[in-house]
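User: I'm new to structure prediction. If I give you an amino acid sequence, what do you actually give back? Let's try with this one:
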Amino acid sequence: MLQARTKRLALCLLMSAFALGSVTRVTAEQLYFANGRSVAIKDYRVDGDIITVTLRTGGEASFEKSLVTAIKPDEMPPIEEARSSAAIAPRVQQSARAAHGPLDARPFADLIETVALKHGVDPELVHAVVEAESNYQPRAKSRVGARGLMQVMPETAKDLGIKNLYDPQNNLEAGVRYLKFLLTRFDLKRAIAAYNAGPAKVRKYGGVPPFEETQNYVKKVSGTYYRKLSDGVRSLGQ
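Assistant: Good question. You get back a string of structure tokens that encode the predicted 3D arrangement of the chain. For your 238 residues, that looks like this:
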């Protein structure tokens, strides 16, 4: 009972900061929008009519304050602090379904969601990578030999014990596991760069390598990802 009252008090204080419109930075876990979507966050700050959130997966996104309806504690610990993705998978799945709503009409949406949540990765991030890598073509093959939906190299798949990269489920298993590996070692922007250019290049240059292909890739993937997070939210305020 005391814990519940404490949570309610904390929520009231957070929403009071909204009402005052002051510049505020608070630690939170789940931000809810008027259209029913939500975003898992580390913290946020309010500056006038704009709220800027720091996402758990790295990076920031800004929204109009009037579109945020609630801030609620999330029973799920942050992904990067969990000891085992397998242990948190059911809670991740419950949270992410609330965040992303019903499955959409994009190809392999059900399979992407299942594999992504299994490994504790945001399905929207996987969609963004798949769109940039193969545009959802399971038989795609690059000039350097990368294959399938997430354009996984055979050597990477072999290290992960995955065969037949043209099979969508196998390809997603390999790609998502590799992406999760990168997210545990870099922030979101650098993890995306490492998916394209390799982690060694990211370490060498201390960030996104100065390659036009990689820089464009990072812009494309992160742009698609952040756009999907706020998709249908900004339009409510127009």
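You can read the tokens as a compact description of the fold. Here is one thing that stands out. Residues 79-230 form a domain with the Lysozyme fold (CATH 1.10.530.10).
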